[in-house]
Amino acid sequence: MNLGVASEVVVLISPQGTIKGMLYADFEAILDGMVGVPEFAGQEIKGAYCWINDKTQVLAMVLFTIDFSANGIACSNWNLPLHHLATHAKPGPNMGAGPIRLACSSQCPVAWHQEQLWEPVVDEDSNDFLLIQQALNERSARFGLYLSYEDNEVPKATDTQELSEVIERERRRAAATIKDLRLKMQEQQKNFDEAYSSLRLVAQQKEEILNAQLKKLLLRLEALEGQHHALQEQNAALEEQVQLLGDSLDEQAALSQSKSTEIETLAEQYRQRMAYRLEQERAKFTELLHQKEIENLKLEEQIEALQVELKEQRSVQFAAGADELLQRLQAAGLNFVANHAGAGHVHIAAEDVFEYMENPVRFAAAKCQVSESHYRAWLKHYQNPCCQVLDEKGETCGKRVLRVDVPAQFQPGVSDRNTNQCRRCLSDVAIENVLQFR
Question: Of 24, 73, 206, 344, which has the maximum CB count within 10 A?
Answer without folding.
Answer: 73
